[in-house]
Amino acid sequence: MIGLEYQILIAIVLDQLLGDPRRLPHPVRLIGAACVTCERLSRAVLPPFAAGLSTVILVLGLTVATTWGVIAGATLLHTWLGNAASIFLIYTTIAACDLARHSTEVYTALREGNLPEARKRVGMIVGRDTADLDEAGITRGAVESVAESMVDGVTAPLFFAVLGGPMAAMLYKAVNTMDSMFGYKNERYLKFGWAAARLDDLANFIPARLTSLMIPAAAFLLRLDAKGSLFILLRDRLRHASPNSGHTEAAVAGALGVQLGGPNIYFGQVVEKPAIGEATRPIEPRDILRANRLMRLSSAIALLGFFVLRRQCLALISGQ
Description:
mainly alpha
């Protein structure tokens, strides 16, 4: 049996080589389908808040049962098949390659002077309206997406994989998927999505803070502004509407020496977000590539820290 740490490392290599396995039966898409079905069934018999809570419980239960069944069934056939199933499941929870690829496509379009294509590309990774964004607005959107998504797309799945293997990683992705589908503050989901949104906040609480502390270290190694990263992290981490996203966004803004946040347009309405960071210089397209390098190196340092923490905890449990 391959040890968990090696399973995670192999999963990371697969992500870097292959990216998102679009042609394979992706577990996250199956979780999304379960969310739709459970929402429809629970809404038919329960009021919104209870229906949302029931949906969360049902989806988590289905995720546990399916993950256990896949790994146990594969292991019964052969130990190596069990290893392969565990590695594949962990691999599907990691999105570092796709995050870097999508944001780099934005940079490429900007470098070529193709603003319509850049708006289209950044619209694939942000929720705001992008039709009228200028170069600075497009760049800011891409950098903010990388800064926020490095937690739920990379370090949080790795944190839970280290903590509890593929089962914990898949449970995290179920929580994250439910938040992305139900966590809207509109009439339909304000009550129904409350449980999913709060559970996602709780799941990301520790990974977001641990990851943000790794960004200044990565900035130092990349010869960016490590002191600025730590300063802005401590000063601006709570300015974001999300209790978690502001930590990594602030650390990235400080490392790059740019200002994030500010006005965005959602469904035709201007939403003024608090500024994060100092505008020591204008934001530029190459900041997208710098943010990607920060994301990759910060994630690697964070994973090393998770491994050390795991070994220390196992040593304490065993009494050594």
